Amino acid sequence: MVETQRTGKSVTRSKGPDFYGLRFIVVAGKGGVGRSTVSAALALSAARRGKRVLVAMCNSKERLSYLLEVNPIGPNIQAILPNIDAVNMEPKSALEEYGMLILKIRALYRFIFENRFVAAVMRGAPGLDAWALLGKAQYHVREMDERNRPRFDLVILDAPATGHGLDMLRIPRVIMEAAAPGLLRREAEVAWELFTDPNRSGICLVTLAEELAVNETLDLHRAFSQELKLPICCLVINQVLTKLFAQEEWTFLEKLSSDGIVNPYGRFLIKCSRVRAQREALQHSYIQRLDDAIDAKKYLLPALFTAEFRRSAVENLSAVIDRSA
Ligand SMILES: Nc1ncnc2c1ncn2[C@@H]1O[C@H](COP(=O)(O)OP(=O)(O)OP(=O)(O)O)[C@@H](O)[C@H]1O
Ligand SMILES: [Mg+2]
Q1: Could you tell me the CATH number of the domain that includes residue 174?
Q2: How far is the C-alpha of 95 from the C-alpha of 103, rounded, in Å?
Q3: How far apart are CA 15 and CA 4, in angstroms?
Q4: For residue 308, what are the domain limits?
Q5: What angle do CA 141, 108, 92 make, to 5 degrees?
Q6: Has residue 118 got a pLDDT over 60?
Q7: Which of these, 3, 85, 211, 251, has the minimum number of CB atoms within 10 Å of its CB?
């Protein structure tokens, strides 16, 4: 436990388990906030620590290969960097592969998934596609290699944006409640045991210090932690502006008037400083709101102003995560 001292009040918060000791991290958040970037940065950090990492994407318009400057990533697991494999899961092949992985016998798989009647029932089952992706991703946590060691130390799921990501994580419980005893239910139970274990799994919430993103993150946090009771391993606030001014300078700058300043550059600089001070104060208030509501390790990733946001930018963010881990 660590003590955080704030204006007049002290908050006790748990530091949580070793982030890199986790086996399964779900990177969740609003569309466009940087889920793929954070997945990539976490993968680089973990790989540097010698972990074998799988980054699993959910049938997305994958940008990871662009970000990391590697070959395009398809539905088959491929090695992209030392210690890092990646896959862009696609429901049909994920279901087939996952079905095969757990059933082992192709004939049995065919009977279950390709049988005309069973297939009709399965096709109608809501969430089956989502379960195929989630099921496959979590399966790789328990997958063993030929030497009977886990094939991956860490699986990072680059989850679909907000509502879709949440619905995906709701599926195992729905299966546990609705499915008849059998293979499907057993699989969902095993997956749920993994997802709810804070020593093995965690949700990494990614957000921006902006109104809409913060509101969505607070809703998402409530749903994950209160409704689903899933452990939140960290909160990543992305694209944070570096502080140019100290907090006490904000009010001073916001009130600073350029009246009477003759030099046009002087007036311009005052205007810029005022706008920047307002932005920093606003950003601070959003970070404060998140901090008050979410009791998890927090990472602030700087906004990087690079013409090409690619590998070196992600390396940069990964180094920031390392330094604050
Ligand atoms: N810290 C940062 N500084 C500057 N730009 C960033 C930063 N993080 C991400 N970006 C930029 O923000 C954009 C969105 O990032 P990313 O693709 O990781 O988001 P996403 O949440 O995965 O989006 P989607 O919902 O489309 O999957 C990218 O174009 C990336 O270049
Ligand atoms: Mg993405």
Answers
A1: 3.40.50.300
A2: 11
A3: 11
A4: 19-243+295-324
A5: 60
A6: no
A7: 3
